[in-house]
Design goal:
The chain is of the alpha/beta class and 306 residues long. It has 3 domains: 81 residues, Arc Repressor Mutant, subunit A, CATH 1.10.10; 105 residues, Periplasmic binding protein-like II (D-Maltodextrin-Binding Protein, domain 2); 104 residues, D-Maltodextrin-Binding Protein, domain 2 (3-Layer(aba) Sandwich), CATH 3.40.190.290. It is 45% helix and 23% strand. The protein has 11 helices and 12 strands. The strands form 3 sheets. Strands 3, 4, 5, 6, 7, 10, 11 and 12 form an 8-stranded mixed beta sheet that branches. Strands 1-2 form a two-stranded antiparallel ribbon. Strands 8-9 form a two-stranded parallel ribbon. The protein is elongated and about 75 Å long. The N and C termini lie far apart (62 Å). The mean pLDDT is 90.
Length: 306
């Protein structure tokens, strides 16, 4: 019979692997650095393999160490899930829910969902992190966030992606722009115009690139900016046009600071999705937040309240 792994030693090793340092692991675990080293060496002895190599002051995981670190992360994540399942019996009277959201959803749609959620469950603390779609997916896959809201394409077999709404993208420019009057702009009008676009990795940028390419438009990109509010200010100053969600510019259009146009012959729309990890059991708080978002966000997009 194979000897069972000492879970305490494995926990200490997992902290070293995650922090990349014996010292940082010791600080995190409130034990001494020699105690950390001793327990990792004992684990190596029990498993009869090297897990960590140290070169100077830097440490590196061996191939066996990387494999064991992955198993350890899953083991202790499941243990955390088990503890959380017990807390769920308290009817959401306390707890923390970490959410990652891409910028359009996080800045212009989730605030209203958050308001409703906290009014119903004031004891649950929400941690909402705004980042681009690529980083949202990575955050969910690395267990940093329990749920993610994305607005661009993601390819990952470990994620479950559920559509919750359709979001319209529009051409955005300053009043008096060469985009002209009316609801539509012809693709031929766009070739000579300067574009200010989101950065690569952004869901808005990925969808914008796809639609412009389908319309045979090669945009003259003069700037890439990773913040929607900054893009809107540059565009409002008359320095170019952009492609953004209608939800992100509705108040600016109402104030007369920006104009929007649809691209003639093309419907620029994209699904907004919630991303979860396939093997992770969602907390009651996460399931409730997703349910509220799935009802509220479509209403906001169709009513123009955002």
């Amino acid at each position: 019979m194979q000897e069972a792994i000492n879970l305490h030693h494995l926990f200490v090793f997992s902290a070293v692997a995650r922090t990349g340092s014996f010292t940082r692991a010791a600080d995190e675990l409130f034990i001494t650095q020699p105690a950390v080293s001793k327990q990792v060496r004992q684990l190596e002895h029990d498993l009869r393999t090297d897990l960590i190599e140290q070169i100077g002051r830097r440490i590196f995981l061996t191939e066996a160490g990387e494999l064991l670190a992955d198993y350890a992360a899953n083991i202790f994540s499941m243990a955390s899930d088990a503890r959380r399942a017990m807390v769920e019996l308290q009817d959401l009277e306390r707890g923390t829910l970490t959410i990652a959201a891409s910028e359009t959803i996080g800045m212009y749609l989730l605030p209203e969902v958050t308001r409703g959620f906290l009014a119903r469950y004031p004891g649950v603390a929400l941690r909402i992190r705004i980042m681009n779609t690529t980083n949202v997916a990575e955050s969910v896959m690395s267990y940093d966030a329990e749920i993610g809201f994305i607005e661009g394409p993601v390819e990952s077999s470990s994620l479950v992606l559920d559509d919750i709404a359709m979001d319209e993208l529009v051409l955005v420019a300053a009043p008096g722009s060469p985009l002209g009057h009316g609801q539509f702009a012809h693709p031929a009008m766009l070739h000579a115009l300067p574009f200010i676009l989101r950065e690569s990795g952004s869901g808005t940028r990925a969808v914008a690139d796809a639609f412009l390419e389908a319309a045979a438009v090669v945009p003259r990109i003069v700037a890439e900016i990773d913040n929607i509010e900054a893009i809107k200010r540059v565009v409002a100053a008359g320095l170019g046009c952009t492609v953004l969600s209608r939800a992100a510019v509705s108040s600016d259009v109402a104030a007369g600071q920006l104009i929007v146009r649809r691209l003639a012959g093309a419907e620029m729309a994209r699904p907004l999705r919630v991303a979860t990890l396939a093997q992770r059991r969602l907390s009651i708080a996460a399931r409730e937040f997703v349910a509220m978002a799935s009802g509220e966000i479509p209403r906001m997009l169709t009513s123009g309240e955002s």
